[in-house]
Amino acid sequence: MRNGSDCLSKWIGEAERNMKLLFQKAKECQPSIIFFDEIDGLAPERTARADQSHISLVSTLLALMDGLDDRGNVVVIGATNRIHALDPALRRPGRFDREFYFCLPEENTRGDFLKILSKSCDPLPSDEVLAKLAHITHGFSGADLKGLCTEAALHAIRRVAPEAYESTAAPSEAHFADRQISVLNDDFYNAFRKIVPSTRRYDESERPSIPLPFSLLIESCIAFITETIKET
Length: 232
Hints:
mainly alpha
């Protein structure tokens, strides 16, 4: 596996050499797979404004992927979030023959994601809560859902041991002694209010708000009032 920028070098001709050595090693170890992550950084579209060394690297990659030199049992896979920034020549038959588009997860898939990500919570969130979260997290990617669960855990820590965050020193085990940290339903809902999915991130002036459904807002208010009454 190689990141798109791994083969780049400030020395003239070094990037092309690294690319040739990579394909040569893959051929020696065949059957093998070369996986380029963020390949748009390695082979962006060639334009008149592009640097000559970058154009040379793209040409070298095209030649290595062509049928001019038998690559043997070597499969080349590239991943990118900016498919239109990729050089069009790479998308021709004989190079990247197949293109697979991975869209954002649907509601049922988001529910499965949340069930896996929250399996370490004690107590486990109910199926009803997971279903509600899956419904209101439209447009969330897998990474966004992971961030949601992480933020819920942090919210639970701030609720149980607020002094751990108010202290200037790093949190220690003493802050959590004899305390059981449980991620409650409200922690997930509060985390949802703070998380902005990556597909909706704009400048602060353009950032859209993500409203919480009225039913969930009522549940959150009732839980907060109940907790306040118990404390008093």
